[in-house]
Each structure stands twice: as C-alpha cells, then as structure tokens.
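pls read this protein:
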Amino acid sequence: MILITGDSGFIGSYLTKALMRSGLEVYGIDINSKKKYEINYQYIVGDILDDSSLSKLPADIDCIVHLAAAHKDFGISKEGYYRVNVDGMRSLLRFANERQIKKFLFYSTVAVYGENQPSTEATPPNPVNHYGESKLEAEKILALWGKENPEREIIIIRPAVVFGPLNVANIFKLIKQVCDGNFLWVGDGKNVKSIAYVENLVEATIFLLNRMEPGITIFNYSDEPHLQTRELVAIVAKLSSRKVSNFHIPLSVAVMSAKIIDFIGKIMQYDFPITSARIVKFNTSTEHRSEKIRKIGFHPPCTIEEGLQKNIQWYMNNGKTASIDIESSSE
C-alpha cells in the first residue's frame, strides 16, 4: 500500500487517481478535507506533524509518496516553511522507522537550484528563498535516513512549475489574463520558463515508482521544449483564439510602479495579485533540464500544447469561478 501525503491537493488528486487506475492500493493523509476532490479511496484528514494522526494509518503501508508542503509566496514565515517542510519530513521518517517502511518518494522542487540555471541533477543547489532552503534541508534529512540502511529505496523529484486543470496558480493566471483579454506585456518576454504538465509529472512518478531500487536517486522534471515567455504566451493566445497586444511596458518601469502596490499591501496586510516580486519572477528565467528520466525510457503522454489546451478548456468551462491561489507551484 502506498501512503500519499498531501493527497487532496492539486498533484495529489491526479496521482491518487492514476495509481488507483494502475491497480495499486492507496491511502491518503492531508490536513485539508476532501471537499474539493471527490475520489473513492481511503484517507484521513490529519497532520503529518501529529503522531496521533500518523498512528491511525494502516499497518500494511510499504511506500510513502510525500507531497504535503508549505509553498505559498505570501503569508508564510521562515519558521512556517521549516515547520511543515523540514519538521514534517522528520515526523514522516520517524513513522517510517516505526513501521519499517523502506520506500520513500519525495516531491522536492527546482527552487533548490536558486539562480544556478539552466539546471540538471548535477547542478549544485543554491536556494535563494525560504521555500527552496526548507525543501533542500528536507532532502538532506531524507538522504541521511537513506544512508542509515542500504536497503532503503529513495527517489527525489524536483519538478518545475506544474500546471493543468484544477490548478489556480502561476500558469492559470497567465491563461486567465490571455483568455479574458487582460494580458499586458511587461519586459521583452525572452526569459525561459520550464514548465510541467500535471499528467506528465504523474506518469513520470509512476514510472519511477516502478523502478525503485536501493539507494538515493534525484530527478528533475520538466516538459520540452523549454519555452521563452513570449513563446508560451503565443501558444496560449493561439489555442484560445485570442489576440495579445505587442505593446510592452519596460520591466524597470513596471517594477517601480508596483512598489506602490507593495507598500499598500504591507500596510493592509493584503497580498495583491500584482507585486514587484511577482513581476520580477515572471521575467526571470527558470530553466531546468530533465534529460535524465528520458534517458532511462520515460516518454510523457502529452505535449505542452496538449496540456495547455486541456488547461484552457477547463478554464473556459469551469475555471472562471475558481479563486486564484497565490502559490509558488514548486518553482
């Protein structure tokens, strides 16, 4: 039986369905309820930091897939990231020791690389924010756990920005702006953005679960080709039959103007969708290569265009009523 932490979240809901379709038995634990995703499987609403919650899990778990994380851009302190991402890892590894579980797959993030880009799995980590730092610390703790017993099988996946139906973070906001005719160019759009369609990431996860072996292995995950922002916007505009203006606001002007919004947000303690940090982030290259998993035989089932088409269709049919969730989405 596979335990999935964070099973009611965006990636978790897709992964749970896919694992069940493949005939595997799944059990979930998430601090949130299942009101958003109705899936017929066993789970508990509980906290991975709470021993009493973990004690309720069934005895026949032999593999942990760890998705639960703190990853929002706003409203989480350094302590908040470390509590969930680092202490949560320690709690799960104590549980694994008690149950003698030897298989562990951890969803980390390309944020561990920081500005060291373009990245491969051989690129030295150098995180530049608390999210990336806490995820890297969790990786180190997991690696030490793995070295304690040579029979333990560990895979760490570092996904790029993940998108798809049901997600309302980074790529959703871009699709929403283009589809609604509200997209405004800031900067020249020449920065590269590596992205990952959720169904491809899930299939990559199952591919790796079926190939676990003793030791620790790290895999980046992103889809190809790696697009410049202007190429990504052009694809979304084409697929949604929308036109995007060629007028560009210089990045420096947009950032200076957004400082006013930053100031107001700080006073009001409110996270506005447009901030100077998000403008800079949108115009920063985040290029992360994932040839390693392809070299061992993985072929993603969907192209980037097919994934974007599904995401656009979902937005047009259902997503207009979805609230925007300000998340880092693993970047």
